[in-house]
Amino acid sequence: MDVSKLIEKAREAAERRNYDYAIDLYLQALKLSPDTAMARRELRAVENRLSKEKGSSFWGKAKTAGNAAQVQILYSTKKYDSAIEKAEETLKADPGNVGVLMLLGKAAMAANYRQTAIVTFEDIKSMNAGGNTKQMVEALRELAFAYETDGKIREASDTWALVQRHAPGDRDATARIRDLAAKTMTTTIETAARTGERGAAARSTQTDEQKKQAERSDREKGEIKTAEDLKAAINDKKNDLLARPDDPRIHCALGDLYKQGGSYAEAKKSYDTAREKDPNNYTYLFKLHDLELWKMTTAAKALQAKAAAGDAAAREQFKKDVSALLEYKLTSFTEREKQYSTDSLTKFNLGCVYYDLAKEKGDKTMYDEAIKRFQQTFRDPKFRTDSGLRMGSAFAAKGQFELALKRFDETLASIPPELKNEHWKNLVYAKGDTLFRAGKVNESRETFLQIYEIDVAFKDISKRIDEMSGGPAA
Questions:
Q1: Total-model pTM
Q2: Of 260, 279, 298, which residue constitutes the final position of a domain?
């Protein structure tokens, strides 16, 4: 996912010394794209700058210690994404905490966020692990393995040499340097062969296996665009399973590929196996949930097309399928909220489910459940606009017009005046509609005119303006 705009905003905020806002923006970017090394590195730099200016307090250190213990628990129970989020929450107050950085790097590596792992262990290396030789050696070991996994053979070898320097006589380091020396030669040959630097001589030196590894590396760096690409990627994962049949991450990755190819049964089998291998990792349970949601949504879309064409039976079944889909979403996201209680995206999605169910069932108590989630996600800049719109609409649906208008105005105030985009238009439209329902017809018309002046084709704005022309005063 492209998070470049968020990162750019974070940089601008940091330049204005609005460090807290910059940190929030970086964390938003990392939630959307967890393995963005640049964002992770820049985030840490801003946190260090803020820490130097503010200093530390006794209570801050006490809170950090408590959070660090939670990170350890999450990592130990293999809730790697949650461990990463909790670690980042802790590092906001204490960015130089080597123990938490170590856990962050390990969790990132376990979750296959290799770039995040690398930059985190590099940070520990650059700060000399705070002068703790034991932690320094541990970080260097982890960094060497991360480099090797990422195909950075020379960097891995150099890092093992640093292990030897800090821990003379380390047998493991000596063995790894020897093994990596052979890989370095192989990598040199492969690179020369691919770039044509050694022509026929290099190509003749490459073995079939080396060519396959080079092709696989190219595949993993690129996108899967054709059926042949997908088939090759699936075979890659199957080969990985021959070496590591009990690794749930490989089974999960295989499930993702099957799902991408539209193969529900094979994807479910792979996700089920991943869950059997690691039953405490809820990532695999929610992969299964997402698979079911994908299947149900695909079926509903197919019916929707038939219903739109006038098929009465399809229209009736479509309504039933949408209702079943919403109920399944409710079950799934309620469980996700239990496991990821601080995750804004989970809360926002659950709020949307309650909101949609309230509209479908006419159950106003469900609007209350939706409002409760939106009140929490409204504080998150990433979800503020959508949460404000949904929350205000929920208040309006309950007849609480003053509360609805207050929330619409608060949300509009957070949008730059010159930015009259779709979010702005939706909010202004909802405000105008609420004013109309509250009996304030003139104010409603004036509000609708704000949209009409710049986009007469938006929704039914032209019709509503015409209907209210000459209407009674509020």
A1: 0.56
A2: 279
